[in-house]
Predict the 3D structure of the following.
Amino acid sequence: MEEKTILAQILQVLDLYASDMRKQFEVLHEKFDSLQRQVQALSEQTNTMNKRIEDMDRRIEDMDKRIEDMDKRMEGMNGRVEGMDGRIEEMDGRFERQITQLERTMNERFERLEAKLGHIRVELAETQETVDFHSVKIAQHDRKIRHLLHAR
């Protein structure tokens, strides 16, 4: 009987130990389930972050394309500005040539006017001398006529 008692006690201890182990397994199982949920949540967060990163990558690519487009437009505008600079320089050259031609023409005309004015001055001086001469002669004739009228 002793063997049965010992065996019963061993079975009882094993039962207690098994019960204790079951509780520990349940706690471990709950911890494992909690860890699995946490891993699942982290996985979902990682997926969300990956999607955000992919969106950001697409946005960056779009921005790069826009920047490239803007660079091309700027190059086109630079070409246009250079063309306009060339045309402005050409117009500036034409204006300078026209101004130079106009100055030459004006100078020639002023020289002609000065020459004409010089001739007119000479003619006026000669006319003044003629008028002065005639005035003197008229005065002399007036005196002679008055003298002849008084002498009578």
Notes: The two ends are 212 Å apart (CA to CA). The CA atoms of residues 117 and 123 lie 10 Å apart.
